[in-house]
Amino acid sequence: MMKTVSFDLFTPTQEHSILRDTVRDFVRNEVEPQALEHDIKEKFNLDLFRKVGDLGLLGLTVPQEYGGAGMDAVASVIVHEELASSDPGFALAYLAHSVLFVNNFYQNSNDFQRNKYLSKVISGQWIGAMCMTEPDAGTDVMSMKTKAEKKGDFYYITGRKTYITNGAIDSNTPGDVFLVYAKTGEKEISTFVVEKGFEGFSLGQVLKNKTGMRSSITAELVFDNCKVPSENILGKEGDSLIHMMKNLEVERLTLAAISTGIAARCIEIMIDYSNNRYAFGKPIREFGQIQRYIADSYSKYMAARSYLYYVASKIDLNKPGHRVDTDGVKLFASTVAKEIADNAMQVLGGYGYFAEAVVDRMWRSAKLIEIGGGTIEAHQKNMTKDLTRYGYKIR
Ligand SMILES: Cc1cc2nc3c(=O)[nH]c(=O)nc-3n(C[C@H](O)[C@H](O)[C@H](O)COP(=O)(O)OP(=O)(O)OC[C@H]3O[C@@H](n4cnc5c(N)ncnc54)[C@H](O)[C@@H]3O)c2cc1C
Predict the structure, then answer these.
(1) Residue 212 pLDDT > 60
(2) Considering the domain boundaries, does residue 395 fall inside one?
(3) Which of 6, 116, 142, 225 is surrounded by the fewest CB atoms within 10 Å?
(4) Whether 15 is catalytic
(5) How many domains is the chain built from?
(6) Same domain for 137 and 105
(7) Are residues 86 and 177 in the same domain?
(8) What pLDDT shows up at residue 391?
(9) 232 touches 113 (CB < 8 A)
(10) The pTM is what?
(11) Can you give the residue range of the structural domain that contains 23?
(12) Residue 79 near residue 57, CB atoms below 8 Å
């Protein structure tokens, strides 16, 4: 029998509906069974990641003529939401690869570079990452110290990057390919593609004992006069600001999708537990204080999710121009997800405090979205700047 599909804000077309069903089945059958173990052991599941490549999801936003799935920002939101509802760390590794590397690279590369790298990362043969943050430069990105100097046919990059998701695959193995931001002038940042085998590149410390997102690996990377062919610069010197502006918008959008995925799972768990847990002779859903946790969580989740899909529907991956709302939705969804995970833990009582309850994994992971890809304070600063200085129309 044909399945009846109804389209709505969250699943606007048949392609989106098929995509959501495909990823949801994959999550149920393949992601969920491994999530607890990989979170506890702080291990990245490379085999599973390559299966995401087999499903065609690693080049989701790359046009079909370049070997991708040719889908839009809404599709990317759907995939992140579904993965995060089970394993937020795996969703973060997916984001670092498919958004921070693949989408960013595709948007800003030439055909020679696309032929050289895209098939390797879209298949999952190579794992990609994006390197912006440094030990002394996070929010204040312009203060980065990593430098690239051109000599003959090569650039030589010197500096350190830190907190890089997919910077490593395990304690000893670096990721395969990196988009690296480095200064080519006092106020000029340029973007380079660096392979792990390039002379002068090495894996620094693999950063252990993360609070959440533990199935993604975070690492420091060291560039010691790292020799990069000049054909590996994206665009021209000084183009990074436009690369960053474009990519940060979809990065913030998909990070917000990780938040709504986390929130959805927490609400499902709360509902189920409140139906089945009895106290004082009745299910705990009968208590007003529990009702408040559930109802408040649901309405905030729906507000965050509606905002998310509204922004996703407006984004053009080729062109920046939605900073207020991509910052805004991440600002809102990240804090909402953290609150909802906390509500869920409260509703579950002592049981919620143990890993097998799942809420524990969601609660620890939700916090990262208030920090990574821009802190909530950075969003407040950017948004207020845009809202107050440029005659922004809010209605
Ligand atoms: C698990 C994880 C994964 C990550 N993955 C990546 C990755 O793949 N690639 C990458 O490049 N980076 C990555 N990051 C780095 C992340 O994006 C940064 O941590 C983030 O941008 C904040 O920078 P910071 O940690 O240096 O904090 P800082 O910039 O030092 O901020 C410290 C505090 O000061 C506040 N602050 C700073 N400036 C201002 C201001 N002007 N006004 C008000 N408050 C301010 C901040 O909001 C924050 O509260 C990751 C981080 C984590 C934890």
Answers:
(1) yes
(2) no
(3) 6
(4) no
(5) 3
(6) no
(7) no
(8) 84
(9) yes
(10) 0.98
(11) 14-123
(12) yes
Ligand 1 pocket test, candidate residues 39, 92, 134, 139, most atoms within 8 A of CB: 139
* Mutation pick for ligand 1 pocket among 133, 166, 215 (CB with most ligand atoms within 8 Å): 133
- Kindly state whether residues 112 and 49 are assigned to the same domain: yes
DSSP 130: E
Could you tell me the pLDDT band of residue 322, with boundaries at 50, 70 and 90?
A: very high
Backbone φ and ψ for 257, nearest 5 degrees, come out as -65, -35
How many angstroms is it from 340 CA to the middle of ligand 1? 23
Which protein residues are within 6 Å of ligand 1, measured from CB?
Answer: 96, 100, 129-133, 138-139, 163-165, 210, 213, 218, 368, 371-375, 377-378, 381
Confidence (pLDDT) at 4? 59
Q: How far is CA 333 from CA 260, 297, 303, 311, 328, in A?
A: 7, 12, 9, 12, 8
Per cent of the chain over pLDDT 70 is 98
257, 332 Cβ separation under 8 angstroms: no
Which token pair is 117? 């790298």
User: Does 362 lie in the same domain as 246?
Assistant: yes
Per-residue pLDDT tens over the stretch 213-263: 999 999 999 999 999 999 999 999 999 999 998 899 999 999 999 999 999
- Same-domain status, 228 and 245: no
Q: Are residues 262 and 385 part of one domain?
A: yes
pLDDT digits (tens, 9 = 90+) for 140-178: 999 999 999 999 999 999 999 999 999 999 999 999 999
